[in-house]
Amino acid sequence: MILAAPVSHRAGLLKLFLPVVQEVFRERAPKKWEHYFPGLNQHLQMAAVPLWDHFIST
To answer: Which residues share a beta bridge with 36?
Structure first.
């Protein structure tokens, strides 16, 4: 997802998603989360599930 974003947006997306990914790996438990993007007037709702040294997001 981050690599598909325009280069100008990647740092912001990394700042948003990295803490969630780190928590999933640290806790070894699924996490649901939501983020509101005011510029788009949209909510992003996701779930991340750890899978050994990878994770799956939906």
So the answer is: 43
Question: Which residues have CB under 8 Å from 38's CB, separation 6+?
Answer: none
> What pLDDT sits at residue 17?
82
Element (H, E) at 56: strand 54-57
- Predicted confidence (pLDDT) per residue in 13-36, tens digit: 788 888 888 899 899 999 998 988
**Residue tagged 């100008």 (tokens):** 8
Q: Where are the domains of the chain?
A: 7-57
Residue 23 tokens, joined: 């928590």
User: Which amino acid makes up residue 41?
Assistant: N
How deeply is 48 buried, as exposed, middle or buried, from its count of CB atoms within 10 A (0-12, 13-18, 19+)? buried
